[in-house]
Each structure stands twice: as C-alpha cells, then as structure tokens.
C-alpha cells in the first residue's frame, strides 16, 4: 500500500464514520473498486483506533460530564440532572446491541464481505 492509498482510505474513513453505513465496508470496497491491494486487518484497526482517539478528544468535555453524572448516580442512587438521565438512557440503549453482538461473531461481516468480493473478481 502506498502513502497515497493510505491517505485516501483515511479520508474516506473520517468522512464516512458517522454515516449510517458499515464502518468497515468502505475499507473493504474502496480498494476493491480501485483495484488496490487489500490493506489488511492491521491497517483497518489502526484507522478505527485513530477514529476512536479523535472522537474521544473532540467530545472529552461531554465524556467527563457523563462520567461525573454516572458517579453521582452510583453515590446518591438518584437520577436528578439531565446528564444523569442521559447516562441511564445510554445504558438502556446499549443493552440491545450487547445482546445481539454476543450472538453474532465479530468477524462474520468481514468474512462475508471478503467472500462476496472475491467471487465477483
């Protein structure tokens, strides 16, 4: 993979991360569409780690507010503020995702994508 290809994939990752599409689909489809070599799992992980660090840094004040609110809920056993309510809603919203992800292998989507792409070449 060239530096240019890495930059292009990084830009695509950054622009499409918050769209309601698979966060890995663009990393599998772009090299396939442009006839580039597949970057590999290490590159995918590096891009997603970079995205995570950027999101944590950008929303650091909000994360701190939520952590303080969660601590207040634990210590006071009350949900009194808007931030505390948001913590409770985030926990509730996480439950369906966690229960479904336990049933589906995290590599199932990636394997299926690679299989489908290799069959069309």
List the SSEs and their pairings.
Elements: H1 3-16, H2 25-33, H3 41-58, H4 60-76, H5 82-103, H6 108-120
Helix pairs in contact: 1-2, 2-6, 4-5
Brief sketch in words of this structure:
The protein is mainly α and 121 residues long. It has 6 helices and no strands.
Verbal overview:
The protein has 121 residues and is an all-alpha fold. The chain folds into two domains: 1-58; 60-106, no CATH class. Helix content is 77%, strand content 0%. Helix 1 crosses helix 2 (25-33), helix 2 packs parallel to helix 6 (108-120) and helix 4 packs across helix 5 (82-103). The radius of gyration is 19 Å and the shape is elongated. The model has no long low-confidence stretch (mean pLDDT 85).
Keywords:
121 residues; mainly alpha; elongated
Overall residue-averaged pLDDT value? 85
Share of β-strand residues: under 5%
User: Counting H and I runs of at least 4 residues, what is the number of helices?
Assistant: 6
Q: What gyration radius follows from the Cα positions, in whole Å?
A: 19 Å
> How many strand units?
0
Determine the N-to-C terminus distance. 20 Å
Low-pLDDT parts are none
Q: Report the biggest beta sheet as strand number plus sense, adding barrel if it closes.
A: none
Number of domains: 2
Please state the overall shape, judged from the principal axes of the Cα atoms: elongated
Question: N-to-C SSE series?
Answer: HHHHHH
**Helical content class:** over 70%
Alpha-beta classification: mainly alpha
């Amino acid at each position: 993979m060239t530096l240019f290809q890495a930059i292009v994939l990084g830009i695509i990752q950054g622009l499409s991360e918050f769209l309601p599409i698979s966060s890995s689909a663009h990393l599998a489809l772009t090299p396939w569409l442009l006839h580039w070599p597949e970057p590999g799992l290490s590159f995918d992980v590096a891009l997603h780690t970079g995205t995570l660090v950027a999101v944590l840094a950008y929303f650091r004040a909000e994360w701190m507010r939520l952590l303080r609110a969660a601590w207040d809920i634990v210590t006071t056993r009350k949900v009194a503020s808007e931030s505390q309510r948001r913590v409770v809603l985030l926990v509730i919203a996480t439950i369906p995702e966690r229960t479904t992800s336990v049933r589906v292998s995290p590599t199932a989507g990636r394997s299926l994508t690679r299989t489908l792409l290799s069959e069309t070449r």
